[in-house]
Amino acid sequence: MRKTKIDDRFFESTRGRIVLLLRICDRTVDELSKELGVTDNAVRAHLLSLERDGLVFQSGVTKGFRKPHFSYALSQSAEMLFPKPFDSLFTQAVAVLKKQFPPKKVEQLLRQIGSELARPYKPAGKTSLSTRLDIALKALTDIGGVVTISQNGRTLIKGKSCPLAAAVVSHKEVCKLAETLVSEIVDKDVQEVCDRTGTPKCRFEIG
Hints:
Layout: H1 14-24, E1 27-28, H2 29-36, H3 40-52, E2 56-62, E3 69-74, H4 87-100, H5 103-118, H6 129-142, E4 146-151, E5 155-161, H7 165-168, H8 175-186, E6 190-192, E7 203-206
Antiparallel strand pairs: 1-3, 2-3, 4-5, 5-7, 6-7
């Protein structure tokens, strides 16, 4: 079988759209079929090709009425399809800060960066929490994140992909930058509970 061709037109194809959907959250064949408006068999053929190329994998299984349903997720390799500018530069900059300053000062500087990044997004006047959450999602998306809101007894911003993953792998305090960014925009206390196992994933609990 031929290897998937990755170019500027890839994300316009059905295969590319599958990758974009899985970047947001894991999905089953049936869910992808409904989202894309194609048959289950077509989705399976594309997933088989993407699995062969190491871009997706079976991430779980749920019981179905007749048979189990497998869910699919993007592999860590697939994140390389979404290059984030200045990853290496920022990671090195944080490393230099940690050599020059004590931990509390480093966190203070990172929070200051987060506050400055939030400034253009902060709405003027009174706005609803829902509106501010939407703005926070846009801010995180603009710097390369893929995030959604979960409200199940608590409000949680969940990221499928961390916009600062390259730096977070070596410097977990970088999460405080994003925590401050979100907190400044939503105007509430925010606690980062990020998942840093494997590929880092953003988690921000809104107070």
